[in-house]
Each structure stands twice: as structure tokens, then as C-alpha cells.
């Protein structure tokens, strides 16, 4: 699995927007970075061997410097860590976007509701790569939760164009990068201003 820096380099290459993240290896670094960000701050372990960070308590939110110190000490106990990633908190709807290469059909793209309930809800759509913006739009509208993205019952309307860009650029990546077999963007945080990848797993 790609580490934090390898992931960032690859996604930058294909104009896939990550939530800005800072990799730190000491609390002193974390404290310095926290002064550049607004509270709350998301903290997560950077460990290529751990796929589901949330399930093991590897993702936490800190609301002040005291919590930052306590959470840093907790996260630092995980074996095999490259460090701890600090990110600004971005509010919005959680989306999952992914790709898996099928031995017969090639890259298969996936779009759906994200977060910790994705496996329970299974509200997803699929397409074979390559796709264009029009086909990406059909993927988005196919899921049952689409009304939520479109401002259902006072929900913040999501900037759909930003999601389409991620899907199309992921399609390009999946065809160009022959050695990559699977990608999971979960969650992608989408709101009225755009969409950003908060966590990425690349195999």
C-alpha cells in the first residue's frame, strides 16, 4: 500500500484534490502545525499496513492543544507508524469513490455514500473505465442517496461538478497506472464549495 507521501504525489499528478495534510513525527511538530490550522484538527495514523484506521481508533478529532497532546500520545503507540497526519476539519457529506481492476474487464469504478456505513448501506454505482463527465454524472444520479447530494430537506447542496472531476480523473489514473490494482477514496468530503479526498488507500 502507498504511504502518505507516495499517495500525495500520485494524486497531485492526476489533479485529485486531497484535504491538506501534514505528516509529523513528534508532538513539537504537531504543536507547530496546529498553529497554522483552525480547531478542530483531524489526526490519523500514517501506517500502510492498517487499512481501516477508524475501526481501531486510528482517527481522532482534537478541539484544543490539550486534546492534541493526549491524542498524539495515543496514536503514537501504534506499531509501524510512519508518523501522524494532521488535517483541517472539513464539514460536508461523506462519499466513497473507488477503483478495482478486474482480470477480465479491467478497471471498474465505484461511487456511493461513504463513511463508516458504506458496507452496511451498499448504496453504490459502478462503471467500466474509461468514463467521461456525462457518464460520471449518470453514476452519481444512480445512487438512492442522490437527493441528499442535491439538497434534500435542507441539506447543504453538494458541488456535483467536483465529484465528477474526481471520477473522471480516477478513470484516467486507472488506465495509465498499470501497477495499481485498487484505490479507495473514503471518505471524500463534499459540500457546496467542492469535494476533497480525506483518506486514500492505494494498492
Structural features, described:
The protein is an alpha+beta fold. The protein has 2 domains: 20-88, 2-Layer Sandwich (Dna Ligase, domain 1); 93-202, D-amino Acid Aminotransferase, Chain A, domain 1 (2-Layer Sandwich). The chain has helices at residues 4-13, 27-34, 65-75, 118-121, 133-142, 146-149, 160-176, and strands at residues 22-24, 41-46, 59-62, 83-88, 93-102, 106-113, 124-128, 182-191, 194-197, 200-202. β5 and β6 (106-113) form a beta hairpin. It is globular, with a radius of gyration of 17 Å. The model has no long low-confidence stretch (mean pLDDT 91).
Essential attributes:
single chain; D-amino Acid Aminotransferase, Chain A, domain 1; 32% helix; 6-stranded antiparallel sheet; 203 residues; Dna Ligase, domain 1; 7 helices; globular
Q: How many individual domains?
A: 2
How many distinct helices?
7
Q: What are the secondary-structure elements, in order, as H or E? A: HEHEEHEEEHEHHHEEE
Tell me which CATH architecture of the largest domain applies here: 2-Layer Sandwich
CATH topology of the largest domain: D-amino Acid Aminotransferase, Chain A, domain 1
Compute the number of strand runs. Answer: 10
The CATH superfamily of the largest domain is known as ATP-grasp fold, B domain
Structural class: alpha+beta
Q: Show unreliable segments.
A: none
The major β-sheet equals: 6 strands, antiparallel
Outline type: globular
This entry's quaternary arrangement is single chain
Task: Kindly estimate the percentage of residues that lie in beta strands according to DSSP.
Answer: 25-35%
Rg over alpha carbons? 17 Å
Distance between the termini: 5 Å
Mean pLDDT, to the nearest integer, reads: 91
Q: What's the CATH class of the largest domain, please? A: Alpha Beta
Q: How much helicity do the residues have?
A: 25-40%
Amino acid at each position: 500500500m502507498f504511504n502518505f507521501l507516495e499517495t500525495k504525489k500520485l494524486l497531485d499528478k492526476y489533479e485529485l484534490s486531497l484535504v491538506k495534510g501534514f505528516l509529523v513525527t513528534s508532538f513539537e511538530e504537531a504543536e507547530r502545525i496546529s498553529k497554522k490550522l483552525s480547531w478542530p484538527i483531524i489526526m490519523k495514523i500514517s501506517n500502510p499496513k492498517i487499512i481501516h484506521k477508524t475501526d481501531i481508533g486510528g482517527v481522532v478529532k482534537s478541539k484544543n492543544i490539550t486534546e492534541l497532546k493526549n491524542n498524539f500520545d495515543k496514536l503514537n503507540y501504534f506499531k509501524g507508524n510512519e508518523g501522524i497526519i494532521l488535517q483541517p476539519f472539513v464539514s460536508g457529506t461523506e462519499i466513497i469513490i473507488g477503483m478495482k481492476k478486474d482480470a477480465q474487464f479491467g478497471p471498474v469504478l465505484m461511487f456511493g455514500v461513504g463513511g463508516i456505513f458504506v458496507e452496511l448501506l451498499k448504496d453504490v454505482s459502478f462503471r467500466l473505465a474509461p468514463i467521461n463527465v456525462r457518464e460520471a454524472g449518470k453514476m452519481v444520479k444512480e445512487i438512492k442517496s442522490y437527493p441528499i447530494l442535491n439538497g434534500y430537506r435542507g441539506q447543504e447542496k453538494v458541488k456535483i461538478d467536483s465529484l465528477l472531476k474526481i471520477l473522471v480523473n480516477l478513470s484516467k489514473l486507472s488506465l495509465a497506472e498499470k501497477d495499481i490494482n485498487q484505490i479507495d477514496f473514503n471518505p471524500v468530503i463534499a459540500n457546496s464549495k467542492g469535494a476533497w479526498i480525506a483518506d486514500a488507500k492505494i494498492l
